[in-house]
Design a protein that fits this description.
Structural class: alpha/beta
Strand order of the largest sheet: 5-4-3-10-9
Strand content: 15-25%
Largest sheet: 5 strands, parallel
Oligomer: single chain
Number of strands: 10
Distance between the termini: 49 Å
């Protein structure tokens, strides 16, 4: 399938890849670049509080390895626990990236689970949208909260599949299905993907894309896993568009036509 004929549309932007990938936890920036290239991702997330993109002139910058001329950077607010901190962090990112407005908002509830603090997330989203940001937002898999974030004006809603870094996969596909049923903006699974089959399932459900970091960076071979994730996202998208056969309990159907069969000898 030609991905140019089935682009991922976020706001006014279009992308050929539906895999978004994080840039943390790799051995070094060189491995980060190698994994990102193997993934085919066009959007890469950057934790502004943890990654140097120019804040420290004396340290290596991620931008030397993933230049904005080739990749769409998605600054995120990893490590923020209040709306105020998240808004401040993304305003800093906009200054560092010459007015860049596409951002990923996440406001965490506690350092143990990294589950989103939804009241603070909603508050930050309202401020950022008013401030001219294009907000992609990490949230719980609550259909009501997802709908509210869309109402506020977020350009993409990103419910978790399971806890950040857990690798547990999609624990509640029914909630994701409820979110997808009502959504008019892209729904992108964020957090919890552990392996390629998890990514494929997300896409088969109808998600617009998948964002991951630990699943690739913590693999024994991150570059090979990045390639596997690329293929899984593409396969899952094709399966969704193709439309799977209906499930049937206790209804065996031969895969070959039964008509015209040769009669058994002796009849």
């Amino acid at each position: 399938m030609d991905t140019s004929k089935d682009p991922l549309r976020i706001g006014e932007r279009s992308f050929g890849s539906r895999l978004l990938i994080g840039t943390g936890k790799y051995r070094d920036f060189a491995q980060t670049r190698e994994a990102v290239e193997a993934s085919g991702a066009e959007i890469v997330t950057v934790a502004i509080r943890r990654t140097n993109i120019g804040q420290d002139a004396n340290a290596p910058s991620l931008l030397e390895y993933l230049p904005p001329s080739k990749f769409t950077l998605l600054p995120n607010t990893a490590g923020c626990y209040t709306a105020e901190d998240a808004v401040r962090t993304l305003r800093l990112a906009r200054e560092l990236l010459d007015g860049h407005t596409l951002v990923k908002l996440e406001v965490l509830g506690d350092p143990q689970t990294l589950f989103p603090n939804m009241p603070e997330t909603l508050k930050a989203a309202e401020t950022l949208v008013r401030d001219g940001f294009e907000v992609m937002v990490y949230c719980s898999d609550d259909p009501i909260q997802a709908r509210e974030l869309e109402r506020i004006g977020c350009v993409a809603v990103m419910p978790l599949a399971s806890l950040i870094g857990s690798g547990m996969g999609i624990l509640n596909p029914w909630n994701l299905a409820l979110i997808l049923e009502k959504a008019e903006v892209p729904i992108i699974v964020d957090a919890g993907v552990g392996t390629a089959s998890d990514a494929a399932v997300a896409m088969e459900l109808g998600c617009a894309g998948v964002l991951m970091n630990t699943a690739v960076a913590a693999a024994q071979d991150p570059v090979l896993m990045a390639e596997a994730m690329k293929q899984a996202v593409e396969a899952g998208r094709k399966a969704f568009l193709a439309g799977r056969m209906p499930k049937k309990l206790y209804s065996a159907t031969p895969s070959s036509p039964a008509g015209g069969m040769i009669a058994p000898t002796g009849t």
